[in-house]
Design brief:
This protein has 800 residues and is of the alpha/beta class. It has 26 helices and 23 strands. The strands form 5 sheets. The chain has a 6-stranded mixed β-sheet with strand order 10-14-15-13-12-11. Helix 10 packs antiparallel against helix 11 (286-334). The protein is flat, with a radius of gyration of 39 Å.
Length: 800
């Protein structure tokens, strides 16, 4: 029976061979590094590792033979024999030996990366290097062990003869090891199935192996990989995710039908009871009695039929819901990969970089089976690589220095991934020297990032944030692996791109740790759904610090800006409608307002929403690219009842709030009636005369109003846009902007035009009064009104 692989129907044998190499070199790299860290090469764990290494080398050898790459067969054969010699105790493994064997693995890595089936040409170009590599590995296998006599036993001599013969043949006649042209029919699609069958089962083709039967006794066929990988287009996978989410929504549409049918069943039952009662109590003629009896039987038959169908519909609804949920969960799982898929090259990279720096470093990876969205996993590679390189370059001390500090000579970097509270947490920690905060403070000043006086006041957390700035580095000189200041900037940018958080925690003298907080997947998010202006919106839980009800008594207004206090920190308060530029809605909470406290880096704001609708798991639906980037919105989703909603881009929202604040546009906007229930009536007095300002302020305060003042028209215009004022009282003749212009600006503004304005001026001409009223003022008073109740009467008339 011929084994077929449909997904390989249009793939060349050399491409499949490269896929085999890609899989096996991961096992070889990880196994060899693990073997280097194991104290005794003949321990039980080391023996299992060696078995795995021998199987991988043997697998590559068999695959290379099938595609006709004889030089690759020979390199794999020598590599396999080196593992055999280690297992038999003929080699006492040390770092130098590992370096040589890693060169052999790298040789296969490069071979597997050759494109367009140009492997034969590549092997010809690498003939000289391949010859030297085989010499080094052969010498490694033939080197006497420190624990054995220099002269091998007759049995060992017999076992090593094939290896000696191969090495000597290569040295005497290198051209023999130029690759032979493999049979072109290997690339014939008609022969692909049988060739692929051989490739998949080459572990069992022992008769093609040139090694002795005794050497082959250690080779196992290996377990069949139960999780066969099939490459799927990302767009297809996203569409499948969208369809699965829609099916989950659609299944909820069955429940109303079930409810209606149940209600109809109850109504029919009531009808039957009435007919039974009528039949018993009514004195009807015989003919009418028979017709009533027939009607009762028909009702009973209908009820029985309806009962059966309602039960079937209910069961179908439950099965459909379970099926849709299973489909949904499976599609989500198809987006996930184990963390180990993204960390395969880290151990090797850490080892090589540490040796190049004269350091000894061990990488511990915890949570390799933690499931991560494949898109996030791809994006994590570069940030984690930079952080690991920085840990080696800046953090881990040389062995001699570590010994003086009482630390183990071998430094440790711990990379951990775990799920917690619906989020993905990744931590990179080293036990090096950590960050010298005073040196960091000096670097910040030296690079003119802040003034010395301000730098002296920065907390540790604020100082650590400078590490993530583009181009910032504490290295004294630029080296191959550090000093350019791009690594942590890349990490920060990646985290912000996926809507996560990154924080660095320092323990001087004991190490540095980086904490990533990321969404579990970019396809599905856990979000808080709220109502704003009658429409649903979603905030990702990643950026929500707290959700709470804020009473009117907790709201404080300072410098025209509302805020409230949370854990000793002032949190600015703003209505969601104002930032999102949505219609105002009536507040339904008389005593408290639902507030979402969002955090983005160092900024915190409280967003007032209309209602909290609850926490939901939402399938992210990207917006049409033709819309471009929509301000304050990142994506869309569907609620469980099929209604569309927008997902808020919190980072963008914070930027919008800060821009409004810097431009004097941020205010807690309410209509006048709702504002009165929130706080005292607020009045802004605009006059360039100190005496007049104070007189008006005291007069209004004595009548229970909250009063702010501005010294000219321009300041008055900036101030009125920063706080929810109920009334503006203005003079006319003022520098920078006169009162008429101020009134016109207020009345032309879509959000401020409802604020009433009173002009109080020494000018009492009819023309001046008409100019003020035509500009939009609600009252025009002269300053003689201070002597009577005219001003207070006008104020009460406008705002109560």
């Amino acid at each position: 029976m011929i084994y077929t692989c449909p997904e390989f129907n249009n793939v060349s044998m050399l491409t499949i061979f490269c896929m085999e190499i890609e899989k096996q070199v991961v096992i070889l790299n990880d196994g060899l590094l693990a073997l280097e860290n194991q104290a005794v090469a003949r321990s039980e764990s080391a023996a299992k590792t060696l078995d795995s290494l021998m199987r991988s080398a043997h697998s590559i050898k068999g695959a290379a033979r099938i595609v006709g790459l004889d030089t690759a067969v020979e390199v794999a054969h020598v590599l396999e024999d080196c593992f055999v010699a280690i297992k038999k105790g003929q080699i006492t493994l040390d770092s130098q030996h590992v370096d040589v064997l890693l060169k052999g693995i790298d040789w296969f890595t490069e071979l597997g990366q050759v494109k367009n089936d140009a492997h034969s040409e590549w092997l010809i170009e690498q003939t000289d290097y391949t010859s030297k590599l085989l010499d080094q590995m052969s010498a490694l296998c033939l080197a006497p062990s420190e624990n054995l006599d220099a002269k091998p036993s007759p049995k060992e001599e017999t076992e090593l003869k094939p290896l000696k013969k191969a090495a000597s043949a290569l040295n005497k006649n290198p051209q023999n090891h130029k690759p032979q042209n493999h049979n072109p029919q290997n690339h014939n699609p008609q022969n692909l199935k049988s060739q692929n069958h051989k490739l998949q089962n080459h572990n069992n083709i022992d008769h093609l192996d040139s090694s002795s039967p005794e050497e082959n006794t250690h080779i196992d066929s290996g377990d069949e990989d139960a999780n066969r990988v099939v490459k799927v287009n990302a767009d297809n996978l996203n569409r499948l995710m969208a369809l699965a989410g829609e099916s989950l929504v659609e299944v909820n549409g069955l429940q109303p039908f079930v409810d209606v049918m149940q209600h109809l069943k109850q109504q029919q039952q009531s009808l039957i009871h009435l007919l039974n009662r009528l039949q018993k109590e009514a004195m009807l003629p015989t003919g009418e009695q028979k017709r009533l009896d027939s009607a009762r039987k028909i009702a009973l038959d209908c009820h029985a039929l309806l009962s059966d169908r309602v039960g079937e519909l209910d069961q179908f609804s439950q099965r459909f819901a379970q099926l849709s949920d299973n489909l949904y969960q499976e599609v989500i799982a198809s987006h996930m990969l184990p963390f180990s898929n993204g960390t395969q090259g880290f151990s090797r990279m850490v080892r090589d970089l540490a040796r190049s720096q004269g350091k000894q470093v061990k990488l511990e990876i915890v949570g390799q089976n933690t499931q991560i969205d494949r898109e996030i996993l791809d994006k994590l590679e570069a940030p984690l690589t930079h952080i690991l390189r920085n840990a080696i370059a800046h953090g881990i001390e040389p062995p001699a220095q570590r010994q003086q500090l009482g630390k183990p000579e071998i430094g440790t970097i711990r990379l951990e991934a775990r799920h917690r509270a619906g989020m993905l947490f990744i931590t990179v920690t080293d036990d090096g020297c950590g960050i010298d905060l005073e040196q960091l403070r000096a670097s910040v000043i030296e690079k003119n990032l802040t003034s010395p006086s301000l730098a002296a006041q920065l907390s540790e957390a604020e100082l650590m944030e400078f590490l993530f700035l583009p181009g910032f580095s504490t290295a004294e000189q630029v080296t191959e692996i550090a000093g350019r200041g791009v690594g942590l900037d890349i990490a920060k940018s990646m985290v912000q791109e996926v809507g996560g958080l990154l924080q660095a925690l320092n323990t001087p003298g004991a190490g540095l740790s980086f904490h990533f907080q990321l969404p579990l997947t970019l396809s599905v998010i856990r979000a808080l759904v709220v109502e704003i202006s009658g429409e649903p919106y979603a905030f990702s839980l990643t950026h929500i610090d707290q959700v709470r009800l804020v009473s009117r008594e907790e709201i404080i207004v300072s410098e025209n800006c509302p805020y409230f206090v949370v854990d000793g920190e002032n949190v600015g308060l703003v209505k969601a409608q104002q930032v999102l530029q949505l219609p105002e809605s009536q507040l339904t909470h008389e005593t408290a307002f639902p507030v979402i406290i969002i955090k983005n880096q160092d900024s915190s704001y409280g967003i007032i929403v209309d209602k909290l609708l609850g926490e939901r798991e939402l399938v992210v639906r990207p917006l049409d690219k033709r819309f471009g980037k929509i301000q304050d919105v990142s994506a869309a989703a569907l609620t469980e009842d099929g209604w569309p909603l927008l997902i808020i881009d919190v980072a963008d929202l914070v930027c919008s709030i800060e821009q409004m604040a810097s431009g004097g546009m941020l205010l807690l906007s309410e209509d006048r009636k709702d504002a009165r229930s929130l706080q005292q009536q607020r009045v802004l007095v605009v006059d360039d005369s100190l005496t007049v300002r104070e007189m008006e302020r005291q007069l209004l305060q004595n009548h229970g109003y909250q009063v702010d003042v501005a010294v000219n028209g321009m300041e008055g215009w900036n101030t009125v846009r920063t706080g929810g004022y109920d009334l503006v009282i203005s003079d006319i003749d003022m520098p920078r902007m006169n009162g008429i212009e101020l009134v016109q600006h207020i009345k032309d503004h879509p959000q401020l035009k409802q604020i009433p304005v009173i002009i109080v001026s020494y000018k009492d001409r009819k023309a001046d009064q008409l100019a003020g009223l035509n500009a939009g003022a609600d009252y025009y008073l002269t300053k003689s009104s201070f002597q009577d109740d005219s001003l207070i009467t006008a104020v009460k008339d406008l705002i109560g």
